[in-house]
Write a structure and sequence with these properties.
heterodimer, A: 112 residues, alpha/beta, 5-stranded mixed beta sheet, 5 strands, 39% helix, globular, B: 142 residues, alpha+beta, 5-stranded antiparallel beta sheet, 3 helices, 30% helix
Chain lengths: 112, 142
């Protein structure tokens, strides 16, 4: 899966699309970890084009969050629709990620 | 609304999750469950991922059969495989407070299936056929 990746200041924004499931999660995880390992430690992941996220996708994001935090960075989430947000809430993951209504607020949160 | 079920048979491969997803989205919409189709898409995705990984032990040319039907107000999905029996009761009860990452393989998927559906039943038939029946009463709400 090709990810839309852009940089604003010191923050890297990654736009996810479609189903985030076992078919695409390994590839996404590899790309997110590579970004962090190459120095992009402040990340924002945008969900506006995600139809649903499965347990495999959740595990991928947590793996990336752990790697970013280990490098004194973070992985913050933005533009989550109600259906995706529900999955984060019922699994308890909404408490370990910082979630913002839009990508601008998520990016700006790094400079607050 | 009742009638003949919509059916799909695919080889049990992770690469086929996309075809399964398209089938469920279409069948749910045709059976009057368009607004809640994503709940079925997620539950079926988790179920088929577990079948591929744990019942079959990885990608294989062995089958996954899916049937979607309407039974009164319920939308019903039946998923059948002939892999190893996967007993969900062997998994520990999930506690969202205790860390989602420490869960057993497959456990988080079953947790999501049970939350997305109103009824989830595993039926192990003689002869090695495993059947998963998932139901959700359609509310008309998203």
């Amino acid at each position: 899966m090709s990810l839309d990746i852009s940089k604003t200041g010191g923050v890297t924004t990654v736009v996810l699309k479609g189903r985030i499931d076992a078919a695409v999660a390994p590839d996404i995880e590899e790309q997110l970890l590579a970004l962090i390992d190459s120095g992009s430690r402040r990340l924002v992941t945008v969900f506006s084009e995600v139809t649903f996220i499965s347990s495999a996708g959740l595990r991928t994001l947590v793996a990336a969050l752990k790697r970013a935090k280990r490098e004194n960075g973070d992985l913050r989430l933005a533009e989550m629709g109600a259906r995706v947000k529900e999955v984060f809430e019922i699994t308890g993951l909404s408490t370990i990620f910082s979630i913002y209504p839009n990508s601008r607020e998520a990016i700006d949160s790094y400079t607050d | 609304m009742n009638g003949a079920p919509f059916r799909l048979e695919v080889e049990a491969r992770i690469a086929n999750l996309g075809a399964i997803d398209a089938f469920i989205a279409d069948a749910a919409a045709r059976l009057g469950g368009e607004k809640e189709a994503y709940r079925f898409q997620l539950a079926v995705n988790e179920a088929c991922t577990n079948i591929i990984r744990y019942a079959y032990g990885g990608d294989t040319d062995r089958p996954i059969q899916i049937a979607c039907s309407r039974a009164g107000e319920d939308l019903v999905v039946r998923i059948t495989d002939i892999g190893e029996r996967f007993d969900p009761d062997s998994l520990p009860v999930l506690d969202t407070e205790s860390g989602v990452l420490e869960r057993e393989p497959g456990g988080l998927g079953i947790f999501l299936m049970r939350r997305m559906m109103h009824d989830v039943e595993f039926i192990f038939h003689d002869g090695g056929r495993n059947e998963l029946v998932m139901k959700r009463r359609l509310s008309g709400e998203g």
